[in-house]
UniProtKB/TrEMBL annotation:
Gene3D superfamilies per UniProt: q2cbj1_9rhob like domain (2.60.120.620)
Top-rank lineage group of the source organism: Eukaryota
Coiled-coil region: none
Name assigned to this protein: Prolyl 4-hydroxylase alpha subunit Fe(2+) 2OG dioxygenase domain-containing protein
Compositional bias (Acidic residues): 285-305
Originating organism: Rhizodiscina lignyota
Chain residue ranges for the region called Disordered: 278-308
Length: 321
């Protein structure tokens, strides 16, 4: 349903819907180039992302029906398509974006912008433009959004972001102006994880594996503890379920869910391996030892030289829970 949000921008006034070209140019003068996250940095690089943006405190939505009726209706519709209950979800206005001709955003994954965020909702407002299709991919499947050619009428697109779920890009706008409001989708119950991986995960094979392992524990052919190495390294302080990265978090949640269902315990741990024994000559330890200053070596007692060799032949190790 086409509803005018009645967006008011200081210095411009109310924006028309559909957006007129003269107001689009005025809006660009008030906007700033949108940055993006790269590692721990936030940078502006128009070869990766070329988009104008405005923060929510720089404009005002004056139509109460938009926030009281339209957005709740869109969220309910979006949640149905994402397979979750809308009663658990809030939508928080994040940015207003404007894509002019040549604007785009290369393939990327969203980052968590606030606590409880699990997805992104983009509401494309009434404007005429060409190109600007969103390409979203997950688990080997790809969709182009919207899936129709006319883009003059308002529409919305949404996707999961959590645990490196959905990768997406905005194709280059070829004409006109793509005018959108973006919202963060927030989970009201942060202890319950929402992600595309959750929706598409099939636990059948993992349950089968745990049951087989349980039988092998009983007959003594397998140990009752196994270690699965994560992709990333973590400090003791950062080793928490909620702070794991990407696939580490997704896999850990699956192992915890199915393991506890079948009465296995799940732990996160830092691992150190410790090995003792004589060092083989081919390992390079003797070369390391012989490379020591000969004068210092002559001053060492036989006992001190033996201790030094043992130190060269050891690898640190232990398992801490």
């Amino acid at each position: 349903e086409a509803v005018d949000p009645q967006i008011h921008v200081p210095g411009i006034g109310p924006l028309q819907s559909p957006l007129a070209e003269n107001q689009a140019l005025e809006l660009i003068d008030q906007c700033h180039q949108a940055p993006f996250g790269k590692g721990s940095e936030t940078i502006v690089d128009v070869s990766v992302r070329r988009t104008w943006e405005m923060n929510p405190d720089e404009f005002e939505i004056q139509n109460p029906a938009w926030t009281e009726r339209v957005i709740p209706s869109i969220v309910e519709n979006a949640c149905k398509k994402m397979g979750i209950s809308s009663a658990r979800v809030d939508a928080e206005l994040y940015k207003m974006l404007l894509y002019e001709k040549g604007a785009m955003f290369k393939a990327h994954q969203d980052t968590e912008k606030c606590a409880g965020m699990f997805g992104t909702l983009v509401v494309c407002l009434s404007s005429s433009y060409g190109g600007g299709t969103v390409r979203a991919s997950h688990a080997g499947k790809t969709k182009y959004l919207p899936e129709w050619s006319s883009r003059e009428s308002p529409y919305f697109v949404c996707w999961y972001y959590r645990y490196s779920d959905v990768k997406h890009e905005v194709k280059e706008v070829t004409s006109g102006y793509r005018w959108v409001l973006t919202y963060n989708l927030l989970n009201k119950n942060p202890s319950q994880h929402l992600s595309a991986t959750d929706k598409f995960f099939d636990a059948t094979q993992l349950r089968r594996t745990f049951r087989k392992w349980n039988n092998e524990i009983r007959d003594g052919s397998m140990p009752d503890k196994l270690i699965y190495m994560l992709d990333h390294e973590y400090t003791d302080e950062s080793l928490r379920l909620g702070t794991l990265k990407g696939n580490d978090l997704a896999r850990s949640l699956r192992l915890k869910q199915v393991g506890e269902e079948l009465e296995f315990s799940f732990f996160l741990a830092n691992v150190e391996r410790e090995t003792f024994g004589e060092c083989e000559p081919s390992s390079g330890c003797e070369d390391d030892y012989d490379s020591r200053d000969k004068e210092d070596d002559d001053n060492d007692s036989e006992e001190e030289r033996d201790e030094l060799k043992l130190r060269y032949s050891s690898l640190q190790c232990s398992l801490r829970f």
